[in-house]
Design brief:
Strand content: 25-35%
Order of helices and strands: EEE
Helix content: under 10%
Number of strands: 3
Radius of gyration: 16 Å
Length: 71
């Protein structure tokens, strides 16, 4: 727990970007006006090799299948 968010000594480590896709979906409707030109787009729950899980978009590939490892 960070008691003082202004404390010094924090760093942003460089991560590999590799991980496992645990879940995904492909959006075919523009739920947000700013994304209307990006349809269809992939949204995925990814666990990075370094540990954290995050929700992200996957670009530059066809729709992904569950439990795959994007490179």
């Amino acid at each position: 727990v960070v008691r003082d968010v202004r404390a010094e000594g924090h760093s942003w480590p460089l991560l590999s970007g590799r991980g496992t896709v645990w879940s995904h979906c492909t959006f075919h409707r523009p739920y947000f006006p700013s994304l209307k030109d990006a349809i269809p787009y992939n949204v995925a729950l990814v666990e990075l090799d370094e540990g954290p899980r995050l929700i992200t978009n996957i670009v530059g590939i066809a729709p992904v299948s569950s439990a795959c490892r994007p490179q």
